[in-house]
Amino acid sequence: MFLSLNKKFFLTILAFFLLSAGIFAIIFNEIIGKKISEEHSSIVSRNQYVIDILNENIMLRKKLNLLAPQKIRQIDGNLDKKQEELSKERKLNEELNQNYNESYATLAENLKIISLGSILTLMSLVILWFLLRRWVITPIDKLILLSVAVANGDFSKRLKTKPKHFTDEFNTLMTTINFMLDNIENNINNIKEKEVFLQNLIDALPDAVRIIDDDYNIILSNKAYNEHIKKQYLFNKPKCYETYDKEASCPCSSAQYICPIKELKQKHSNNIKLIHYVNNRPLSINSARVFLNGKQGIVESIRDLSENVHFSHQQKISSLGFLATSLAHEMKNNLGAINLILDGLLQKYYPDTATPSEKQKYLTLISQQIKECIKVPERLLKLSRNTDQPDNDFNIASNISDILSLLDYEIKNKGINLIKNFSNLKENLCGNETDFKMIILNLVQNAINAMPNGGTLEVKTNTAKDKLIIDIKDTGCGISEKDLKHIFEPFYSTATTKNKKGTGLGLAIVKDLTAQFNAQITVSSHENQGTAFQIVFPRQKT
Length: 542
Prior knowledge:
The structure is a single chain. Strand 3 (271-278) and strand 4 form a beta hairpin. The protein has helices spanning 5-64, 70-151, 169-203, 223-230, 260-267, 306-349, 358-383, 396-406, 408-413, 433-449, 481-484, 494-497, 506-516; strands at 208-212, 218-221, 271-278, 281-292, 295-304, 392-395, 416-422, 428-431, 455-463, 467-474, 520-526, 530-538. The strands form 3 sheets. A 5-stranded antiparallel sheet has the order 2-1-5-4-3. Strands 7-9-10-12-11 form a 5-stranded mixed sheet. A two-stranded antiparallel ribbon has the order 6-8. It has 5 domains: 5-151; 167-204; 207-304, PAS domain (Beta-Lactamase), CATH 3.30.450; 306-384, Helix Hairpins (Orthogonal Bundle), CATH 1.10.287; 392-542, Histidine kinase-like ATPase, C-terminal domain (Heat Shock Protein 90, 2-Layer Sandwich). It is of the alpha+beta class. Helices cover 58% and strands 16% of the residues. Helix 6 runs antiparallel to helix 7 (358-383). The two termini are 80 Å apart.
C-alpha cells in the first residue's frame, strides 16, 4: 500500500498532538485534580465541623435557660472559650475558602496557559508540516514524476529549477539529475546514430549477414538477409535454428545442420565455414566469433551458392558449346568430305551391292564408322543447347544412350565393362533435356574417374507407380564416410583430397538440376567397394 510522505507527516503530527494532549490530561488529572479534590473535601469537612459546633451551641443556649443562675457564670466561662474557638474556626474557614478560591483561580490560569500552549504547538506543527511539504515532499514528488517518465523511455523531461539565493540538497540533486539526463540523452542519440550507421553499413554488404547471441537470438540482420527470407530460403523467426525449421524448439543437432556456435565453442577457433542445404539450396555460412555485452556471440555471412552453381553450370555448357562448335567445324566437314569420297568410290567401283566383295565390305564398314563419328559433334551440339529452352518431353533411354555413346571411347580405353538395363525404352520425362543430359554426364564421368584401372559400370532405369528411377553404380574406389556427407557441397571435391584435379562443382550441379526436376538424389558408398547413385523422378502423367 502506497502512503505518500505528505500523509505520513500529517498523520504523524496529528498522532503526536493527540498523544501529547492525552498524556497531559492524564498527568493533570492525577496530580492537580486530586490535590484540588482533597482540599475541597477538607474544606467541606471543616465546614461541617463548624456547623456541628453551631448546632451544639444552640442546644447549649436552650439548656441554659433551664439551668440555675449559679451555674450561668460557669457556663459563661465555658461559653467564652467556645466562642473563642468558634471565632478561630471561622477565621480558619475563611482562610480555607480563600485558599480554595485562589487554587481555583490558579487552575483556571493554568488551563488558559495550557490551551494557549496547545494552540501554539499545533500552529508550530502546522508550520513544520507546511515547510516539510515545501522543502521535502514537493521536490520528492517532482523526482517521482521524472523517474516514471524516464522508466517509460522519455529522456526529454527535466526538473524545473529556479535561481535562489539559498540552495539546499534537493536543489543540488535536481541540477545533478538534469545534467545526468542530458548526458544520457546525448549518449542515446550517439548510440542511435551509430546503430543507423552500422545498419547502413551491413545493409551495403551483398551477402546476407546476421548477428546471433549466445542464446541463439538473432539481434541484428541486413537487407540481404531479409531478401533471403522473402525468397523463402529462411523463415522470419527470432531464433537462428527456427529460421531453418519454423517448428523447431531446440538448437540444430549434428544430424540436421552443423551449429556454428557449438563448433566455435568446441574447437575454440575464431571462425568457421560451413555449407547448409536449406530448401534444396546450398548456403555458404561463414561464421566468426564476436563478444556482445560481455557474452559470446557470432556474426554469420550467408551466401546463396545456387547462382554460383548455376553460373558454373552455364559456363560448363558454354565450354561444351564452344568445344562442340570447334569439333563440328574441325571434324564434321572433314569427315563429311571423306564420307562423300567413300560413297563415290563405292558407287563407281562397287555398284553391285548384291554380292559385295571383301574390299567393298571394308569400305562400307569404314563409311559406317565415319558416319558414327559425325554423330559425336552432333551429340555435343545437343548437349550444349541453351538451358533456358522451354520444357519438353524427351525419351529417357535415348538420352542416356547418347551420353554413354559420347563417353564410349573413354569407357573402353579404361577397360570398363558397361552394363545397360532399361526397363522401359518408351518412358518419357518432361523438363529441360539438356539439364537431364548434364545430370547423367556428370554421374557417369565421376564413375569413370573412380575406376582408372577398370571395373564395372551399371546404368539401369526402373519404374514404379508414380516414380522413374535411374541407378548408376560403379565398382571404383568409393567415398569415405567423412566425405560422403559433403559431396553435394559446392567446391568440395573428393578428388582434391586425393591430390587429383577437380573443381568440386559437378555433384553440386547435379543436386541443383535434380531439384529443378523435383527429383530426389541419394548416394551410398563404401571405400574400395564402389558407389551407387539413385535419382527418383516424379513420373509424368499421361
